[in-house]
User: Fold these one by one.
Assistant:
Number 1:
Amino acid sequence: MSDSPETQREPLTGSQTPTPARQREISERVERLREAVRSAALAAGRLPESVEIVAVTKYFPVSDVVAVASAGLTNVGENRVQEWSAKLQALSDAGDGELTAAHPAVAAELTWHFIGQVQTNKAGAVAAGADLVHSVDRLSLVKALNKGAARHNRQLGCLIQLSLDGQSHRGGVGLDAWQAVADAIAEAEHLQLAGVMAVAPKGVDPAPSFAEVQHVSAAMTADFPEARVISTGMSGDFATAIAYGSTHVRVGASLLGPRPVVG
Ligand SMILES: *Cc1c(COP(=O)(O)O)cnc(C)c1O
């Protein structure tokens, strides 16, 4: 038998109904996170409502998506196209006899955030299903996303992912190069420039990085007033991110527990 996480756990697209114990656990974690986000916002002299929580459900089963939505978080983030498509399918598919009336409602209410690196050949799938893509980092991707959004006759929100540590393997555009990408998004008929996203470098104080992102955001909104989103902060650093203007914190582990390691 393989000991891959997907055989140890409930299949990612198995039962859509969380167990009562799991629902309770997630609801409690949602409450605690809300309180922590609220405190961080107030400490920064900001309105708690100015910070949205994006629940990152990657590697967790579709029943956990239902659980976070039932606990009131309807912004959901995924980072792998294949896994996400399977969950979308599961949530919209009424065929398994187990789906209750509540679940299509949950699916319809969700706002999907795509937070992972997008291969150009997957851009069509991302453009078809996402509401906000956090990880736009190159001109070829802008073109592919616009084409995909046009094909599905929809508008797609885009954040420019900034690379803060020069580690291009994590994706992101350098701080000196975001303007060309911003112009391209703004000119694309089916895309809307919505702001910036970044992941703080590992193992160092994230504050200087988040300050830099806030600085880029100020420059961007000077040219594009609608592009106000600042997507920074994860489980370990969201309070610091909120002190530096984050409008969208992307939180996985604090809500759902440690992720299974996926190779
Ligand atoms: C996984 C992931 C997150 C969530 O990280 P946690 O530490 O589990 O909160 C946030 N942003 C991105 C881009 C991710 O890939």
Note: The mean pLDDT is 90.
Number 2:
Amino acid sequence: MTERRLLMIPGPIEFEPEVLRALGQKTLSHVDADFIAIFGRAIGRLRDVFLAPRAQPFVIAGSGTLAMEIAAANVVEPGETALVVDTGYFSDRMAQIFDRQGVKVVRVAAPIGRVPDLGEIEKALKTQSIKAVAVTHVDTSTGVRAPVEAIAKLARENGALSLSDGVCAVGAEVLRQEAWGVDVAFTGSQKALGVPPGLAIVVAGPAAMAAYKARKTRVASLYSDFGQWLPIMEAYEAKKPAYFATPAVNLVTALDVSLGHLLAEGMDARFARHARIADAFRAAWSALGLETLPTSADVTANTLSALYYPDGVDASVVGHVRDEGVVIAGGLHPEARTKYFRVGHMGAVTGSDVLATVGAIERGLARAGYGTADGRGLVAAQKGLAAKAR
Ligand SMILES: *Cc1c(COP(=O)(O)O)cnc(C)c1O
């Protein structure tokens, strides 16, 4: 059985060999001078990746969901109200997290495949006392990308903080945290940052840190409390040893390597590469007659594609594509779970990965009775890639 199967799901993704080698190195003491230097550098690099020069990064062992909990727990207090811009599965999770923390939730929702109307968000902000607005930058269940910049602006104009769930976006979709005025942006390691699962990464801007310091109640979870972690993050950056809870030493080392790759590519070049790759995939989907969940181009993410199964085809196609050598994902949004599949395209993805994936999907669809794998998707993707290369 071959291990050479291309992983094209919306996280975890294919990782760079150098990142994986970093994971396999001897584990250093968490207060070893070498590790302190690595961790300190990774924290600084996060400011450059999030384009948030004045913000405080937190790197904490846990998955992306922990990053959501930390963001919610530190800047909103029980009894206050948060507005959730609801674009699908992960917005719903954010609402559940606020609810568990005793925060009242106001939702502004849109039908599947769309983003809520900005006018409705503004109305909710003007008619209610809202402490923070939470938006999912890319909802991984639908491939819908929300206008984070515009929503952060509305929040600020109405005296609310903004929280952006960038777990399927940071490092691939355009995010300029400071210029956009996003108060807390967060992600997990395993998506566009290109590091195996296990790190929650939260970047808090000055207004978010001020809101934390002005709290009347303490954060109920010790592990999630900014106050426990701030001295640790500051110490690592100042090259001094500190301990609150053992950092994931090998993952942090791998994170530092991967952030180095991101910054060597350059954030703008990286955003542009993801847009190019996504365009080539979209050309293939359209040539194959596949319909996307997002209903318009301006709300379609560059990090993944969510596609309805064509008539007469069911979820078995995911298994066929796997047999053809490429791992893709089924549906996730509860309203349409069995009706669509998802293809991740973020991180180290290349033009060759695009062709391998489109080819495997064409053959998988043909096995499921749709089309003849005549290469029309491949031709469209290849033309897209070649046009952009010129
Ligand atoms: C994957 C994802 C999460 C959850 O991350 P886990 O690491 O699975 O806990 C949250 N939000 C978004 C947008 C995601 O894509």
Note: Residues 49 and 171 are 7 Å apart (CA to CA).
